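Complex record, two chains
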Amino acid sequence: MTVTADDIETLAERAASGIAFDGFRVAETDDGYALETPENEWTGLEDADLERALEACEEYVTNWRYWQETVGGAGTARRAFLRWCERAPLEDDRTGASPGGPVGSGDSNSPAPEEPLAVADRYDALGEGIDRRWGQLAITTRFLDVDDRDYERVYDIWHVDDADADLAALEVHDDPRAAREIATYDPDGRYRPLKTAPTLATGWAFTGLTGDELVETIGFFYPATIANWHRERRGNLDVDHWLETAQRQTGIYDVVDELPREAVAWMAEACCVDSQCLRRREWEYDEGDDIDVDGGDGPFPCREPCSLVIAAARTWAILESEDEHAYRLELTTSELNQLEELIDAVAEGRTDEIREADVTDGANRYRARYLRAKRFDENGALEATKLDD
Amino acid sequence: MQALVVAAHGSHLNPDASDPTYAHADTVRETGAFDEVREAFWKEEPHFREVIRTVESDEVFVVPLFISEGYFTEQVIPRELRLEQWDPDKWESDGTSASQVTLEATDAGKTIHYCGPVGTHDAMTDVIVQRAETATEKPGVGEGFGLAVVGHGTDRNENSAKAIEYHTERIRERDRFDEVKALFMDEEPEVDDVTEYFESEDVVVVPLFVADGYHTQEDIPEDMALTEDYRLGWDVPAEVDGHRIWYTGAVGTEDLMADVLLERAADAGADIGDARETVRKLVGSATGADGEPSAGTETGMGD
């Protein structure tokens, strides 16, 4: 018995102004209560009949209770996100489209967005657990008590790469704040200043979170992604383009708006791509003036240059203010190729993968040390001559 | 509903810079005084730009976890929060007296109570004294002790020194320590010469910084000759020129800072119930009922 006396009382009270939620309708008419679900319809119910009818459609009653009483927050990003988690129709979806995840899953192999589920199908699926992906997070929504199929949902999170891992092999948490520590370091123990870098460590799980706790935990892993996803869905994501953001800067960042336009494109290519960030660049050079570099397929919309990009832009704005010169330096063709390989290996974060003895790779450490020994002068600089002095 | 946003600097390079922000925000969370509590940063996430949209509350109290009024509190934070009606004159401050101003964040349509920084609140004086107690492990520390309040100091912002001098004077008026001085890194009187400014054999040195980092863990200990090399650590107390220097590290890591956050918000109209008493019980305070010092706060790298 999962329909409570409280439910009946509350529903009866609100029936006067009408209830319509997830296919469940209750109204108070001159002829008693009227009740409707996609499967059944009752009219002319007196109080005692109402109770029996509500018990006959208890999934709709408990579903209503969870969303309207437990979750609440009509119109909020929190509520929309929790509904997305269990593939419920999103009430505020402008297009009425299926509850697709954040646009672009960051995984080209991921299936197409799934259709929203009606209450009965959702209740069946919640027994098994409904899986969703949010960046590098796998989220499962399930009933707190699977046997009872009661209304109350709980949520589990782990790294997508741990989806098949035994829970006993993971460090299990139930406090959202534990996400802060996990999100702070990459698998090599280095600081992650960019929370949406695709470098989240594995080996942990959050289990049995409430809806509020889930949203709080996501907020620590991927701050503001739920709010901006929600705005994007509703068509009111506010985008600040490069020029606007750059011109707003003051203090030591006052110089970033001097970065040449072509350098902004190089910067976007360096920083704002899927390999470096799970966000999808929505900002351009200016309104109607696109940067000629793909914004990526990241799941989360990026609505303005982030603080890391601004900090990097400051360095590039200063470096780009220098004049170019012609230099002459002596290199064999293979040494020139090696410089290219070195830059590419560092840019792709590949240096750790190069085997100790693989001296055929131009970015091998011994190869780099040999080149330095041969071509650097006593000051540790390339022996180069400026030709246009 | 009401939310508290703790606005701090953060760092792209040092993961510890945000530790005090998280710690104090967590203490406020424990009190349950706010429906929502958020950390927000200039250099980390959520950024100042994004934080207001992550709260559901209509009333948002923003407290800058900064020491002084100045560039960040008067320009950067209001601009990045999209407080378009902001003007520094609205604080009507002489450099240490900003309380709050009520504005609207234009991207989220919420009412923002933009508060003065924690560093200039009167309650900060208690935190400095508490810091001295924590470092010396003497709840009654004062008699026979000198206290140095250390600030960065800079020619670019006169308010930077004002905050230091303000608390120094307030502590001096309490007649608790034999001597109380304001010292600076980048202006006179300099912390390098700390022993020259005190007759007391024991001197507690409290840097008025939000987080431990380069200045509090490298520069200042070396400048004061507590150690030749910060990596070797230092003793608390350390013997320098016949004085015992009790170096405390950044005052911002003191647990009682959560109380200042609450007071700032309460001054701006937040309903915090008995949260302040809860905090003072949680952390033990210099002026609280139980008078027990809090334990386990860091004092230096090597002690």
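Note: The interface with chain A takes residues 11-15, 22, 26, 41-47, 49-51, 53-54, 56, 71, 75-76, 79, 107 of chain B (CB under 8 Å).
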